[in-house]
What we know:
Elements: H1 3-19, H2 24-40, H3 45-56, H4 63-76, H5 79-89, H6 97-113, H7 116-133, H8 138-150, H9 159-168, H10 172-178, H11 180-200, H12 215-241, H13 246-263, H14 269-302, H15 305-316, H16 320-334, H17 340-358, H18 362-376, H19 384-392, H20 398-421, H21 424-435
Helix pairs in contact: 1-2, 1-15, 2-14, 3-14, 4-13, 4-14, 5-6, 5-12, 6-7, 6-8, 6-11, 7-8, 7-19, 8-20, 9-17, 11-20, 12-13, 14-17, 15-17, 16-17, 16-18, 17-18, 18-20
Amino acid sequence: MDGLAILALGFAGLLLVLLSGMPVAFGLLGINIVGxxxxxxxxxxxxxxxxxxxxxxxxxxxPVPLFLLMGExxxxxxxxxxxxxxxxxxxGRVPGRLSLSAVGAGAVFGAVSGSSMxxxxxxxxxxxxxxxxxxxxxxxxxxxxxxxxxxxxxxxxSGLGVLLGALAKVSIGELLIACIIPGLLLxxxxxxYFVVQAKLRPDxxxxxxxxxxxxxxxxxxxxxxxxxxxxxxxVTGFIFxxxxxxxxxxxxxxxxxxxxxxxxxxxxxxxxxxxxxxxLATTAMINAILIGASAFSQLLSFTGAxxxxxxxxxxxxxxxxxxALTIQLLILVLGCFIDAISxxxxxxxxxxxxxxxxxxxPIWLCVLMLIQLELSGITxxxxxxxxxxKGLRPDIGTTTLYxxxxxxxxxxxxxxxxxxxxxxxxxxLITLMTTGR
Length: 437
């Protein structure tokens, strides 16, 4: 059996396992055991153990639990709610004020937590009631919160970005820096859309009629944001300036979160225990999936499937743009049915060898993949952020949720087009970081 046939069988088996509802880690492990046994016999199974150990024994993965701990501490200590309130206080009478509050708070909270699910849950629980009170249409309120929650995938420190960088074997520091401009640009595009929407359709987002807080109270509110802003600068600034590696800045970020919580007298045993348990659970899940992903990559190489795919793509003489379009289309389709991590495990082992063979910039390609992975959280019918929102507001119909994400999907696809046409959007800060020009 040739390599492409083996690749097709492995891909089909993986899709069947994922669609069956089996946990991703166990499904991948089962496929790897069957694949190694059928191809080389039981004697090849020690290779599976070696690849399992190699999959998680990587220093590049150190930032993942540390970034998770930083976000967990700040969320459990209640800083997320204050970020939302602070951003809303400074919005004034801008059309679509609460939608903009969601986007602004999502950008800030994304830079603190790095978790799209946590960001969506926080924004939904804090803003939805006020949006209902001010008679925002459910399609507008849910769309704004789903859009803002997904920003955490792009804006550093992104846990999904670190995981993608480790799987793709690219510089995690460069990937996180490359995501800054696209992430901020996406937030600006969202803000423009919601302002224009509120101007054209005030019935969907009624104008703000209440009294704004006095300037003195708003300035006092910034007192909470100062240490968080310093923490964000500590994490991203040290990477940008080359002072520390992502692993070192992640450790500084976790320690900084502890210091901030302690300084505001919110570092209780209950907060610390909840943060540690949340970090442990998520890290264990990620490591289990990485074990399966590493073994699957080795299986593709061992059976000749990956080299056969590279050879076939090279023979077709694909351009990097064509490769990027094909990958994005694949991720977009997969995102309708499975979660972002599962998509990464399916695509990265096949995509990165192709990118290297065709001369595509791996950082640019990874940023495009992250944008599409952000889309997977909101694309019907199985977007995980849709389930989070449905859990928060079971009274909102599924059709309303689906209609709410249509313009959000369009804006993200527009961002993909911008990044493809202007790859400098991903490379400018990296160039500035490395050369100072």
